[in-house]
């Protein structure tokens, strides 16, 4: 497959670069929220270019969207739910999804939960939490939840989806373990054997919890991967081991 990009996900997808020749995988999108409009326009232009390439080469376009578009009132996190994005970033990704679907190019749109793994940027959620925990004080938004999926499991799921030739679908790709950030923080503290001060931030905070029901129907093998309730603990422990945090504190 053609891998477009050189960031976190593109790095971890390199072992698949000689597989699935019928696909273009766009792993070079806007990496974070709250970026200026020119960055959104850049990603939109790149999507247009990949649509043209997919048509020209007869390849399906794999687009990484976001589960952060979920969280509105009454939203169940299902792919067929009416989407009212709660963030500008989610709205931007939803617009790109619509453009791809209306373009006529074969495609696979994956709405990702929080993909966790080494070699990612430091501004992401878990690295930022670890820095705060080790500093002695961590800020937690009450009720905030995220679904975490280790990048190795993400790559395995994508490999199986493309191997099965799944196209022209919108799929959530997540673990099915949407957990309060407070519990993630507490698990990191237990593993690192530290007890920082917690600063709890009150107020309404959106939780982005994608349903994995459709993914399990389309790809039954997901049920054999050990995902689901409690998975976040294994994913976090693996991340801490891979990044050397456990070794440093042992």
UniProtKB/TrEMBL annotation:
It comes from the Bacteria. InterPro entries: Epimerase_deHydtase, NAD(P)-bd_dom_sf. It holds the Pfam family Epimerase. Coiled coil: none annotated. Residues 20-174 form the NAD-dependent epimerase/dehydratase domain. Belongs to the NAD(P)-dependent epimerase/dehydratase family. This is NAD-dependent epimerase/dehydratase domain-containing protein.
